[in-house]
Amino acid sequence: MLATLRLHFGKILLAAGLVASVLGFIGFRTCNPALTADQSLYRTLRLFYWDYSPWDGAKEIVMPWTLVAAMWLAPLVLTGAIFGVAISLLERRLMAWKARRMSGHTIICGGGSKGRVLAENLKERNFPFVVVEGNRERTDLLMAEGLTAVCGDASETAVLARTGIRKALRLVAATGDDHDNLAIAVAAAQAVEGTEPAPSLAIYLHCGDPALCALYQRNRALQDGFGGVPVRVFNHFRNMARRCLLEFPPAPGTGDVHVVLPSLSSLGFALVVEYAMVGHFPGGRGAHVHLMGRRATAETDRLRSLYPAIDECLVLSAVDLPENSRFAAKVAELVAQQPEQDVFTVYPGIEDDHEAFARALELTEHLHDRPGLRILLDTPPGAPVRRLVEQNPALKYRISFLPAGVLTGGYEAIIRDTLDGTARRIHDNWLAETRRQADAARACGDEAAARRHEAKATFRPWEELSEEQKSANRSQADHIPFKIRAAGLDPGTVTPAVWSQLSEAVVETLSRMEHARWAAYLWMTGWKHAPQRDDAAKLHPNLVPYDQLDETAKDYDRAAIRHLGDYLTTTLPNP
C-alpha cells in the first residue's frame, strides 16, 4: 500500500491541485459574482501559498463550502509537493551514498524487464546490487518497489563511479539496445583500469540480436580486449530457447517433429537456431520448421543468409500470409496434411499476449481432437490470460507457457551458469582425458604427440573458453534428454547403471543421432566439408552422413553415447 502511494504520489498531488483550483474558482465566483474569470483564477492561485481573502475590504461574509475546502486543500498540495521533492532528492542522495559504499555487489545496467528479473532474484537471495537506469520515471518505480537504483547513463564512467564499480564483483549490461550494452561494457572496463589491487569485476554483456551475439561469441578479441576484465556475452532469448526445449521436448515417436512460428522475433530466431542444433531424432530426422506470417519468406531468407547451411540441419519452409488470412486456420490446414503420428509445437505469438491467446483459442477449436499438438504462449506468471488457462482443464490440456524469466534471466542462468552445468562437466571430462593422453605420450618419450594434444584450441579450463567453444558443449549437453528418450528411457529416472546396459543396436541408433547433432553444430557455426581437417579455416572431413564415416569416427560417436551415463546426475534447478 505504501509503495503504491509513494509511486503515485505525484499523480495524487496533481489531481488534488486540480480539484483545489476548481473548487477555489467556483468559491470566489460564488462569494463575489462581480469578479471576472481572470480575477477569480488569480485569487485561486494565491490560495496555494496561504493567502485566501475572498472579499474586498474588511467586511466578513459567509464563505461557501467550495472555498473553505479549497483554502485548506491548496496549501496542503503545495506543502506536499515541497515535501515530496525534498524526500525524493534526499532518497536519491541516500541511494547514491549507499551504492558508493557497496562492496562485492552486482551492478545491473538497465531497469527493463531483463534487469528487473535479475534484480528481484538477487533481492530474494539477499545479494547486494544496484540498478542503473537512464529513465527517471523507471528509476522511481524501481525505488518504490524497494530496489536500490541510481538514475544515469551507465555508459558514462562518472555514473558508474557512483555505483562503487571499483569494489563490484560483476556488472550486467542488460539494456534493450545491444550497442548501448557494448558501450557500457567498454566504460566499465575503463572505470576499473589501473585499480590496485587488480579489479575483481566481471562483465556480462547481453546481446539480443542472435546473429550479432554469435559474432561476439566467436570473436575472442572482444572477450580479451577489455584490459584483463573478463567479459561474457550472453543472450536471454537463447537461454529461453534452450530451457524451452528442455521443459517441452518434442516426443516424435515414429512421426516427424513440426514447429510453427508466426515470425522470427528475437525469441523466434533463437528457437529456430536451437531446433537446428538440438532437434535431431532417430533415423536421421530433423525438425520441420514452418514460418507463417506476413513476411515469412523475407525472414527465412535473412535466416539463411546468416546460417547458409541451416537446411543441412532442419527442414525450413515459409508461407506468406495475406492481410486477411488467419494464422490459426493456416496452421490447421498444415496439420491436417500431415500424418497423425507427427507432433506439432505451435508458438502462436511471442510479442502480444492477448493476440497470441486468441490464436491459441482458435487452434484448440480447429484441432481439438488432434493428438500430438502443443501450444506454447509467452505469458508471465500471474497474468490474467495465464490464470484463465490454468483454471480451465480443457485449455490447460493444450496450452502451456514458456519458462519463467527467472530461469533464463536470473542469477542462476546468467551468473552461475546453471544451464551450463552438464556442458561444463562434459568439457572438464574431455580436458582430463586429453591431459591424460598428453601425459601418457610424454611418458613414452613422444613429446610431439603430447604437444599436439596440448595445442588443441579447447585445451584450457572452462572459464577460458570462448563462448562459441562453450556452445559446442552446450549443444551436446542439451541433446542428452533427446537421446535418453530415443532409448525408451525417462530422463528423470534413468541411472548410469541402466544406461550401461544399452544394447549395441540402441547404441548405434544413438550414435547416428549424436553425429547428426555434432554435424549440425558445425554447419550452424560456419564449418564446411573438406577432405582434410583445418580448424582455422573451419573445414572438416567428417561433415558427411553417418554411413560415410570410417569406423574410427563412428567409434568416437559410440564412445560419446557410452560415456553419457557420466552426466545423468546433473539436473537443472527447479523454478
Tags for this model:
575 residues; alpha/beta; six-stranded parallel sheet; 26 helices; 11% strand
Question: Could you characterize what this model shows?
Answer:
With 575 residues, this protein is of the alpha/beta class. It is 52% helix and 11% strand. It is built from 26 helices and 16 strands. The strands form four sheets. A six-stranded parallel sheet has the order 3-2-1-4-5-6, with helices on both faces. A six-stranded parallel sheet has the order 11-10-7-12-13-14, with helices on both faces. The protein has a two-stranded antiparallel ribbon with strand order 8-9. Strand 10, helix 13 (296-306) and strand 11 (315-320) form a beta-alpha-beta unit. Helix 2 packs antiparallel against helix 4 (65-100) and helix 12 (266-278) packs across helix 25 (504-524).
Summary of the model, kept short:
Helix content is 52%, strand content 11%.
What is the CA-based Rg, rounded?
A: 31 Å
**What's the N-to-C terminus distance?**
28 Å
Helix content: 40-55%
List the strand order in the largest sheet: 3-2-1-4-5-6
Number of helices: 26
Number of beta strands: 16
- How would you describe the shape? globular
The average pLDDT value, as a whole number, equals: 84
Largest sheet: 6 strands, parallel
Low-confidence runs: 570-575
Residue fraction in strands: 5-15%
Structural class: alpha/beta
Q: What layout of secondary structure does this protein have?
A:
Layout: H1 2-7, H2 9-31, H3 37-46, H4 65-100, E1 106-109, H5 113-124, E2 129-133, H6 136-144, E3 149-151, H7 157-161, E4 170-173, H8 178-191, E5 202-206, H9 210-218, H10 220-224, E6 231-234, H11 236-247, E7 257-261, H12 266-278, E8 280-281, E9 285-286, E10 288-293, H13 296-306, E11 315-320, H14 327-336, E12 343-346, H15 353-366, E13 373-377, H16 384-390, H17 393-398, E14 399-401, H18 405-409, H19 411-414, H20 421-443, H21 447-454, H22 467-478, H23 480-486, H24 496-499, H25 504-524, E15 528-529, E16 539-540, H26 551-562
Parallel strand pairs: 1-2, 1-4, 2-3, 4-5, 5-6, 7-10, 7-12, 10-11, 12-13, 13-14, 15-16
Antiparallel strand pairs: 8-9
Helix pairs in contact: 2-3, 2-4, 11-12, 12-25, 14-15, 20-21, 20-22, 25-26
